[in-house]
Amino acid sequence: MSPSSWGGGAQLLAGLQEYRSRNVFGATSFTAFGLFWVTIGVTDWLTGVHLLSPTDHVTLGCYLACWTVFAFILFGATPALNRALEITVGLSGVGLLAKTIGAFGNLAVFTRAGAWLLIACATAAAYTATALFWNTAYRRSVLPLGDLTRSPAAVTANPPAGHADPPGEATRQQPAG
User: Fold this and answer.
1) Local structure of 149: helix, strand or coil
2) Which residues of 102-128 are buried (b: 16+ CB within 10 A; e: fewer)?
3) What gap in Å lies between CA 24 and CA 9, rounded to an integer?
4) Tell me: the pLDDT tens digits for 58-99?
5) Could you tell me which of 14, 46, 53 has the C-alpha nearest to residue 30?
6) Which residues, including other chains, have CB under 8 Å from residue 162's CB and lie 6 or more apart?
């Protein structure tokens, strides 16, 4: 299997954990993009072992266009979270857009630019994850996230009014800090 399949599988598991933590944004973005990378990896693998014919550029462009739209839908929610997520999701949207243009036009320069933008997205995601992890562990801001209004951790810890627990689950107590 392709490395993108393994990375996608890890993202899928992270999304399921975010769902359990009641982080709708994290659950949606991780599970969706995890499945995206799994499909890309499986398609590459099946093509490599000659069980699937190579994908033509128009089909790939349509597939990438759908994911580009999804990335920009996610981007619309990031101003309510933090600057680090805005940058990460924004880079994914712009990177996918460049790859979509590259696929439709069969233009290698856009495909390469999209790849570099997605590498920048992965770097921003690594920073964001590290900041969330360290800031939670130390219970203070060690690495800035550029908090705008409410971070995903704050939304999970302090759900909006009217939030109901799933049937059979009591609200978890937050540790005193």
Assistant:
1) coil
2) bbbeeeeebbebbeebbebbeebbeeb
3) 19
4) 999 999 999 999 999 999 999 999 999 999 999 999 999 999
5) 14
6) none
